[in-house]
Design goal:
Rossmann fold; 2 domains; seven-stranded mixed β-sheet; 19% strand; globular; binds S-adenosylmethionine
């Protein structure tokens, strides 16, 4: 399909999402299949439709952002986080600042609350959770999940932190209150500062090498010295020392200076 360059520019003007930062082949294929599914035959016609049809725009953002998540995704890595990384971070101060970046529908930040409750009383836990997709954040605020999403959780934590509602699992309000959800674009917006732990998983895979590099610098700056960036299981950083990040465990990087 012709016209992708102009489409990218218009999308940027309309949404603030810069599609040039995402891997092109994959993104173009996804968008074109969505356009065809809507029985539209050009980028130009699609952009026109997006501007007038709010539902279509929501569908586009939703489709673009791929919100798949689950609680304690890749459990072995959460085990390392819980048994080694968190105790290390809490050695000097019990109060640690945690940011779940690209948190999607909330499974990741809520997992963090549950995990941190093994170290601290609930009311002392604070998690910042951000995503570009308002729709995902709304779902996170509702906090209703299916059986598949909770499959990696300890049954004790399920009993303690969810109310079972038919086939669904409703996260309890005392967990919800520990998380501050905010809309945030990793490509454009300022990052929080002085973080002890940043979790950014399963989103870097969609970005170009150049964009990733820019983001690693920003993650470095967002961390306190000696503090940790936790990445997804296919997202190991190549030559992390370029960003003054040292691998401390697989998928965990420490800010060197
Ligand atoms: C596959 S989900 C990952 C969810 C969770 N981190 C996990 O690992 O299970 C990817 C998320 O990245 C978000 N995302 C995509 N581009 C983004 C951007 N530029 N800024 C912030 N979030 C973005 C999407 O909205 C989506 O919710």
């Amino acid at each position: 399909m012709e016209g992708y360059e102009a489409f990218k520019e218009r999308i940027y003007e309309l949404t603030g999402i810069d599609l040039s930062s995402y891997k092109e082949r994959q993104m173009k294929r996804r968008i074109e299949s969505l356009i065809t599914r809507n029985r539209i035959d050009s980028y130009e016609a699609y952009i026109k439709a997006l501007q007038t049809d709010k539902k279509l725009m929501e569908e586009f953002i939703n489709y673009l952002t791929i919100n798949v998540s689950e609680f304690r995704r890749n459990p072995q890595q959460w085990d390392v986080l819980e048994s080694e990384i968190i105790p290390m971070l809490m050695k000097d101060s019990k109060k640690i600042k945690i940011w779940s970046a690209a948190c999607s529908t909330g499974e990741e930040p809520y997992t963090l609350v549950m995990m941190m409750s093994h170290f601290l009383p609930l009311q002392e836990i604070e998690i910042i959770a951000t995503d570009i997709d308002q729709g995902a954040l709304e779902k996170a605020n509702i906090g209703m999940y299916n059986e598949k999403a909770v499959k990696n959780l300890d049954p004790k934590d399920i009993d303690r932190f969810f109310a079972k509602n038919g086939g669904f699992y409703q996260i309890k309000d005392d967990v919800k209150r520990r998380v501050t959800f905010k809309k945030h674009n990793l490509l454009e917006d300022d990052y929080p500062s002085q973080c002890d732990l940043i979790i950014c998983r399963n989103v870097m895979i969609y970005f170009t090498e150049e964009t990733k590099s820019m983001m690693y610098h920003k993650f470095h700056d967002a961390l306190k010295t000696k503090c940790i960036l936790f990445v997804g299981s296919t997202e190991q950083i190549i030559l992390p020392t370029r960003y003054d990040l040292a691998p401390v465990k697989t998928f965990f990087y420490q800010r060197m200076k």
